[in-house]
Every structure is written in structure tokens, then in C-alpha cells.
Write a structure and sequence with these properties.
By secondary structure, the chain is of the alpha+beta class. The protein folds into two domains: about 80 residues, Orthogonal Bundle (434 Repressor (Amino-terminal Domain)); about 190 residues, Immunoglobulin-like (Sandwich), CATH 2.60.40. About 20% of the residues lie in helices and about 35% in strands. It contains eight helices and 13 strands. It has a six-stranded mixed beta sheet with strand order 4-7-2-1-9-12, with no helix packed on it. Strand 10 and strand 11 form a beta hairpin. Helix 1 runs antiparallel to helix 2.
Amino acid sequence: MAGATSLPVDRELRRLLRTGTFAEALDHALNVRGLSLERVQHHLAERDVRVSRAALSYWRHGRSRPERAESLRAVRALEEVLDLPAETLVSMLGPPRPRGRAATLPGAMDRRRLWPSHSPLLTAMDAPPDGQLSFLDVHEHVLVDEHRQLAAVRTRLVVEANADRIDRCVVYLWTEEPSKPRLTGLRYCRLGRMRSNDELGAVVTELMLDQRLSTGERSVLEYEWNFPPGPELTFFHRRFTRPSRQFVLQVEFAGEVPATCVPYRQLTMEAPRQLDRPLWIGASETAHLVVTDLRPGIVGLTWEWD
């Protein structure tokens, strides 16, 4: 009955309502009631509440949480649909998180500042909020072929979940000129959705983790981009929206080795480059850059042959 005040009969649901998370309780309640998200939408619409299926799915799996006034109204309607005591789900949400500038985690940067051309792709994909995963360690191996062109980038990520039920990692790619790189070498993950804008050379890719992570749990994933012939490559960088423990960048030159290779940092794409001391390239014909305790921004290498 709508507006019920007694605790649910299901013992596990009672436990989750006392000690579980909002997502866990919502997911279990939906399973107990045998309701699909489509049926939930229908019941909410009968109460003049409109919520997208994607939003319900994100709430259920802990990838986002309802915070706005209209979302909290939807949660109260959900309590009626699921025959739960009033305010049980709402009380599990806790105080709302700050929005705007205050919403940014300490030392974090809005991904739109570093990936402005990717924002429409993220919207089209209905990508989960940024910051659900921390990149503890990032290792990238860049291969520059004998024609001085970018041939491949192999990436290894060590990630840590900042929320419960995290099952995917969204990665971005930008190419200097329009091209169609090929994603290969996936390990410990599989390909999810992908959105691209060939004119801007922008790609957003969803990688599904081998295991669903709870808060604090860690995992590893690897992938490689292979590139068609393009312009001469004179720099490579990685953009960090969150602090990272370590970044290892190796640039291997299959042909002639550059005369100079210099590390640099930028706060944003529009900011000037802050150059560091040149790197030595030895017999391996590979430049090695190792940076620890990174803050948000851009870290990369630039080089010249002549």
C-alpha cells in the first residue's frame, strides 16, 4: 500500500535499509518487488513524476545519486511504488553534495576544462560522472615510427573506486588531425560504448571492467590505440582531471632519435607550457618520463629532430 509505515517483510531488505547504501537498498527492493525499470517509470508517471530509465539505472548501480529537488521528489514516489516506509530511501542519501565550484573534489578539475571538444560526446553517451574512479598509476608507451608519425599508444591503468558498484572506466582520445585509430589489446576489460567526432579528432570510449568495484577496491586495465599514417608527431601528453600517484611516459622512436626531448606541464590547454630539463635518450631510443604525486593538469614531452 502506498505510504506504508511498517518495515518490509524481506529480512535482507530490512538489513540494507539499516546498514546498506542507497544503491544497494534500491536495487534489492526492485528485485524483491520484481519491477523492471520500465514498470517503475510507468508507476512514477502515474504520480506525475518523470525520471529517465538511465537515471534510474545509475541510481540503482551507484553511479550517481539523486540530489536535486525533483530527484528527491522522485525518490519519495519510489518509496510508495516499492511499498517502503516514508523517508527510508531519502534518509539514506545523507546531506546533498555541494554544486558548482564547491562540488569539485580537493585538487580536482572539471573535465570540460581539459576536454572541451569531448563534452558533447560525453552527453551523447550519457557517461557517468567524473571522479568515480581514481587513476593511481598511469603507464603509457608511445611508439613513433620511422616516418616520425604516431604509430601506437599502449596504456596501463591502476584504478581505485570512489563509489560502490563501479563497473566501467571512461577514457578519452584526441588526435591532432582527423583520423580513425583502432582500439586493440584490451586486457582485464572489454569494450563498451564509443562515441567520436572525426572532424575534431575526439573519441570517448567506455571500457567495462572485469569485476564490479566497491569503494576503495582497485583493479587494472590495459588497452592500445593503433593509428593510421598522419602528420609528423612533435609532442605527446596526458591530461589529468584528478590527482594521480604516478605517471610513466615512455616514447620510443623507431627511426631517427630527436636532437632534444623536453618534459613540460600545463594547467589547461590554453595555458603556457612550463618546460623542464631535457631528457637523455639512450641506446633504447626511448625517452622515459616518471612523475609522482601529480596534480590535475597536463604532463607531456615535446621534441625536435633538427
